[in-house]
Amino acid sequence: MNNLRIQKVKKKISVTYSGTSTVLSIENQRKITSNWNFINNKKRYFNGDIYTVNQICSTQNEITFSVSRTDYAHYLYSSNHNLQEEDCKIIFTSAVLLTNDNKIILGKMGTNTSSPNRIQCIGGNIDANDLEENKFNLQDSIYREINEEIGISVPKNKLTPTYLKTDSHMKYTAIIFCVNLEKSWPDIKNLFQKHTNVLSSMNRSPELQNLLSVNLNNESITDFCKKNKSHLVDYLQPLLNTLVLDKKYE
After folding, report:
1. Which of 56, 62, 173 is nearest to 126 (CA)?
2. Alpha carbons 90 and 53: distance in angstroms, whole number
3. Which residues pair with 123 in a beta bridge?
4. pLDDT value at position 250?
5. What is the pLDDT of residue 141?
6. What is the pLDDT of residue 73?
7. How far out from the chain centre does Cα 175 lie?
8. Residue 75, Cα to own-chain centre: how many angstroms?
9. pLDDT for res 1
């Protein structure tokens, strides 16, 4: 059992960089390199830096994740294999985008990505661009992801973590922001289309092949998840159900 958990954020969340790189055993590094050479034989992916959680400290007022540096090849191999203490335990920011016509915006990953056709919230891994001294700016991270993936900017003062998604092995930790957009679903679709046209003109492939929307109510979410079950990222349905429940008691 993975024991996926979505919880309301009640403390400050910080992510700090230890300044170190992950050291792997010779055998695991061999397996990771072999796997990378196999899946990347067409040179579609870039083996960039990834940050993996190596320590979590929780106090009365704050949860701090300490991370070290590893790479994308480690992450991809660890996603499908159990490396136990050498697992890549990623932490990423994610956004629940709510339109002014009461719809949740989701993205469907492009066919050129490592997770083709997967449906998920907008977001991505923290990276070196978010570092300020030894601490990651989580608001900058999700701001960048929203802008890069769908082509819109949101006020940074509206970006506050709302939920924390964890699992029993801590392999995938999501810091989830809820963002109320002052735009309708048709407005967002038009902006996304303009964004993809700009990327195409630059010979760049968009990370998302298209955007999807679902109404913020139980019936719509149940129907959406049933129709798209095979493509949903693991945390999506529990998160959507939590959103409906929390909205009910606002």
Report:
1. 173
2. 6
3. 94
4. 55
5. 96
6. 96
7. 8
8. 14
9. 46
Exposed, middle or buried, 192 (CB in 10 Å: 0-12/13-18/19+)? buried
Q: Which stretches of the chain are assigned E, i.e. beta strand?
A: 5-8, 12-21, 49-58, 62-71, 90-98, 103-109, 119-120, 122-125, 131-132, 135-136, 161-166, 172-180, 208-215
Segment among 37-46, 115-124, 233-242 with least mean pLDDT: 37-46
pLDDT digits (tens, 9 = 90+) for 89-107: 999 999 999 999 999 999 9
pTM recorded for the entire structure? 0.93
Structure tokens at 218: 């139980």
Do the Cβ atoms of 22 and 52 come closer than 8 Å? yes
**Can you tell me the mean pLDDT for 35-62?**
92
The two tokens of residue 51 are: 């940050």
42 contacts: CB under 8 Å, gap ≥ 6: none
**Ramachandran angles phi, psi of 106, nearest 5°:** -125, 160
Q: Residue 248 pLDDT > 70, yes or no?
A: no
Q: How far is CA 4 from CA 10, 164, 169, 243, in A?
A: 18, 11, 9, 16
Other residues' Cβ atoms within 10 Å of the Cβ of residue 211: 20
Q: Please, how many CA atoms are within 13 Å of residue 217, restricted to the half-sphere of its CB? A: 5
